[in-house]
Amino acid sequence: MDTQALEELRVLGVEIISRPELTKETLPAALDGIGILVVRSTEVTARAIEAGRHLNLIVRAGAGVNTIDVAAASARGVYVANCPGKNAIAVAELTMGLVVALDRRIVDATIDLRAGKWEKTRYAQAEGLYGRRIGVAGLGAIGREVLHRARAFGLEPYAWSRSLSSNKAQRLDVGFARTLEELAARSHVFTIHLPLDSRTRGIVNRNVLDALPDGAIVVNTARSEVMDYEALEVAIAKKGLRVGLDVFPNEPDRGTGTFEPRVLGRGLVYGTPHIGASTEQAQRAIAMETARIIRAFMTEETVPNVVNICATSPARYVVVIRMLDKVGVLANTLSVLKRHGINIEEISNTVFDGALATCTKMRVSGRPGDACLKEIAAFDEVLHVDVVSLPNLA
Ligand SMILES: NC(=O)C1=CN([C@@H]2O[C@H](COP(=O)(O)OP(=O)(O)OC[C@H]3O[C@@H](n4cnc5c(N)ncnc54)[C@H](O)[C@@H]3O)[C@@H](O)[C@H]2O)C=CC1
Ligand SMILES: O=C(O)C(=O)COP(=O)(O)O
After folding, report:
1. What are the tens digits of pLDDT across the range 52-67?
2. How far is the CA of 277 from the centre of ligand 2 (A)?
3. For 147-172, what is each residue's pLDDT tens digit?
4. How far is the CA of 284 from the centre of ligand 1 (A)?
5. What is the longest distance spanned by two Cα atoms in the chain?
6. What is the CATH number of domain 3-86+281-299?
7. What pTM was estimated for this model as a whole?
8. pLDDT tens-place string over residues 112-142
9. Any residues with CB less than 8 A from the CB of 131 and at least 6 apart, and which?
10. Residues of the chain with pLDDT > 70: what percent?
């Protein structure tokens, strides 16, 4: 981990245990006594989350949280946070690297040269990128960085993304595709930057691949499960696609080992071992963001980048209680709320200058009745109690 980020954590008094060799299988047994787990692509299963009885926070030191059983974490009240955007430039750089390499067949030319073969005639047959169209599927942090770099190459950009409308596309000066098929049909270069979830699994399917023009360059640096790799193999043969992949089905979860993805032998297919995020710059940015998340978790009320906060809280009211800063006052008010069957969803407590008084705000699902409020107000140390209805912002 970056030395500055490590220093940040040391200042917080965090004891750091580094176990990069852990896998999906060995992680659960290693979580005993661990409060904060920082992971890259290692899978964090429900079994790991159950085994990690002391776990409060899981930080995905990267973007994609599909490797973490977020539902299992939510069910045990464990925060899951990621580092959005912090490795986007690195992935965009690799994406453009693959695009250029495929157009000019740089890898094959190098392999031939290393074997003593001067194949100028063969490798002189490149189309070139300038003036051709690039389709970006998923215009998030990485998609936008790709767009930026694609323009510098003179590629004409098109995009398809969840919240992209034709107006927004116009503002971004990018061609708008209404469907993924439409995007594919326009793309001489087609690049995928969608997260993996239940809606995107297999979304780049046979129909989408069939819509691509012959000889198109296809790049996937997102997740293998977003694309049907069997259909891809067929499309490579049928359409002469040139393909660049940084992600594969059943990737090893160790840094070194053997791995022979079948698709790599199916035509002009270049591959990298999931290194999209692996530049020093990106890793430094990720480390600093990880330290920021941990610091906020330990010292502040809100944790940044949490992906599993209840989007539609059942809380409809806020109980605001000003009280003297004395032992047991808050506990007394809570026991009254409990007796009246009021469930507290969220709570915050602020202490004011001089530490004489505090203000507690509790988000609750049911409106406390007058009797309940009177009981709270009756405590000598309670200065005031109020109930505020939350606006329906849904
Ligand atoms: N190869 C590597 O090392 C890396 C791979 N990745 C992968 O790239 C993915 C994207 O990363 P970012 O751009 O940072 O994420 P992001 O969240 O900033 O962007 C994702 C984009 O996809 C769009 N989107 C999401 N669901 C959609 C749907 N169902 N239909 C249409 N559009 C949808 C979103 O609106 C957003 O614009 C990550 O989730 C991760 O899986 C990320 C970093 C490194
Ligand atoms: O950030 C992401 O989503 C990635 O895929 C990066 O994976 P890594 O942390 O390099 O194993």
Report:
1. 999 999 999 999 999 9
2. 6
3. 999 999 999 999 999 999 999 999 99
4. 20
5. 92
6. 3.40.50.720
7. 0.94
8. 999 999 999 999 999 999 999 999 999 999 9
9. 154, 155, 156
10. 99
Tell me what percent of the residues of the chain surpass a pLDDT of 90. Answer: 92
127 contacts 215 by C-beta, under 8 angstroms: yes
* Structure tokens belonging to residue 82: 């990621």
Which residues face 344 on adjacent strands?
364
CA angle 238, 245, 59 (to 5 degrees): 145
CA 16 to CA 44: how far, in whole Å?
19
Q: Is 277 in the pocket of ligand 2 (CB under 6 A)?
A: yes
Site to probe by mutation for ligand 2, drawn from 23, 41, 82, 223 as the one with most ligand atoms within 8 Å of Cβ, is: 41
Non-local CB neighbours of 114 within 8 Å, separated by 6+ positions = none
How far is ligand 1, taken at its centre, from the CA of residue 225, in Å?
13
Q: What is the CATH number of domain 88-276?
A: 3.40.50.720
3-state secondary structure string, 27-44? CHHHCCCCCEEEECCCCE
CATH topology agreement for domains 88-276 and 317-389: no
Mean pLDDT in residue range 74-80: 96
Structure tokens at 128: 């070139």
Ligand in nearest proximity to the CA of 290:
2
380-394 tens-digit pLDDT: 999 999 999 987 654
Residues in the chain: 394
The phi and psi torsions of 40 (rounded to 5 degrees) equal -100, -115
User: Which CATH code, of 3.30.70.1730, 3.30.70.260, 1.10.645.10, 3.30.470.20, is assigned to 317-389?
Assistant: 3.30.70.260
Closest CA to 358 of 391, 388, 332, 326: 326
Name the residue ranges covered by the structural domains of the chain.
Answer: 3-86+281-299, 88-276, 317-389
